[in-house]
Design goal:
Strand 8 and strand 9 form a beta hairpin. This protein has a seven-stranded mixed β-barrel with strand order 1-2-3-6-5-4-7. It has a five-stranded antiparallel sheet with strand order 8-9-10-12-11, with no helix packed on it. It starts with a strand and ends with a strand. The chain has one helix and twelve strands.
Amino acid sequence: MHLDYPIYLSGELAGTLSERRDGLYTVFSAHCPLRPGLHRLWLFGSGGRYYLGVLSPRGGELTLCRRLSNRTRAALPRELSYAADRPMERPGTAPKETAPLPRREASPVQPEPSAPLAWSARGDGVLTARDGDYELLALPVRPSAASAEKIHVINGQEYLVFRR
């Protein structure tokens, strides 16, 4: 079995997602031309959506390879139709602005981009830094925990940053 689905980023056709069987697993492979920004990829089909992961730069393109067990594959929406960074009315049309992906609200603080911070790791995975009179806490997040605008990448890991 080998199936291909279109990938839409910001409402534009951006690449291809391939689905193939590999023994007891299903492998999804995404390939898109390199573009700036953080792009989270969701599978959409009848009955819902499924978060697949973050596209990563590799060899001059954005890629994602995800291997799912039969049990996990069964939890995906039936009749997959496309992959995208947001829901769309119809593939190839403008994204739905009225139905954003579910997000938890948080009040992160934007650290000053001009002043690099010295982050220290605690034993529980939390990072701390000093920013003038404030202590900053960086909490690790799951990919679907917050919108991309609120996430900071520190040493290759995604965090929500708070000031206390």
